[in-house]
Amino acid sequence: MSTQPSSARPFGARLVAAVSERGPLCVGIDPHPALLEAWGLESDIGGLERFALTAVEALAGTVSVLKPQSAFFEAHGSRGVAVLERVIAEAREAGALVLLDVKRGDIGSTMSAYANAYLADSSPLAADAVTLSPFLGFGSLEPALSLAERTGRGVFVLARTSNPEGRQVQGAALPEDGRSVAQAMIDEAAARNAGAGPLGSVGLVVGATIGRTGLDFSQVNGPLLAPGIGAQGATGQDLRTVFGDQLAHVLPTTSRDVLRHGPGVAEVRSAALRASESIAASLRV
Q1: pLDDT of residue 5
Q2: Is 67 a catalytic residue?
Q3: I need a surface site. Which of 102, 145, 176, 226 has the fewest CB within 10 A?
Q4: pTM of the shown model
Q5: Active-site residue, from 79, 103, 167, 260
Q6: Could you check whether the bond before residue 198 is cis, i.e. omega within 30 degrees of 0?
Q7: Which tens digits make up the pLDDT trace of 130-170?
C-alpha cells in the first residue's frame, strides 16, 4: 500500500507547515516495558498494541510529529512490526507527520534495501522521515538521501548525540582539516539543503543536553531534532545554549514526560498540549 505519493511537497516544507499549525513538538512513541507496566499493561503484543494505538489516538491529532521507536516494536517480531505499520498509517491519517526512529546505516545494496523499507512509496513501513546513522561515512547514506528526495520524505542524520560514549566518535578530529566528526556531519547536511525553501529535508539529531560545544549550525537550513526534553532534564535554556540563533529550526522531542500521564487518552493529550505550549514559549527569540 502506498503511504505517500511521490508528488508530495518536500518534507521540510510539510514540517514547517505542521509546526506553524500545531507547534514545535515531537513526541516519541516508545513502548518500553516499564511504561507498559506503568499503564497496567503486559509486555506482550496485546500490551504493545494497546499502548501504541492509545498514544496515536491521544496525540496524532494534536502534535506536529510522532516518533515511534522501531526497536520496541521489532522486539515483538512480525506481530510487533504489524502494529508499527498501523501506528504509521493511523498517525498520518490523523494529520501528524511520522518520524520513524530506526537509526539505520550501512553501505551499498544493504543501505538501498533499508531505504526502500522506510522511504519507498510502496512500503507499508514508509514514514514521513527516518533517523539515519552516518558513521560509515555520510556518503554511505546516499541511497536513502536520494530516495527521500524523490519521494518527498526527510531524513534526520545523527550528528552529536547526548550519550557520553558518543563523544569518542563524534568529537574526534578529522585528519584533513581538524573539524570534528559531528561538525563534518552538520556541514554535509547543510550542503544537501543548500537553496531549499522554506526548509531543507535533511535534518540532524543533536542532543538537547550536550551543552556548549562550539558546533556551528548556522548553515544547516534543515530541521534540528533535539531529544532530551522532559525526563532527561533539558529545558528551554538548554536549547538556547546548544543551538544559539538557530532556535527557529529546532524540533524538541520528548517521550516519557508525556506518556507517563497515560493510560487515559485525555490525560496524555493534555500533557502533550502543555509541553507544546511550554516549548513554543521557550523557543521564542
Answers
A1: 45
A2: no
A3: 176
A4: 0.95
A5: 103
A6: yes
A7: 999 999 999 999 999 999 999 999 999 999 999 999 999 99
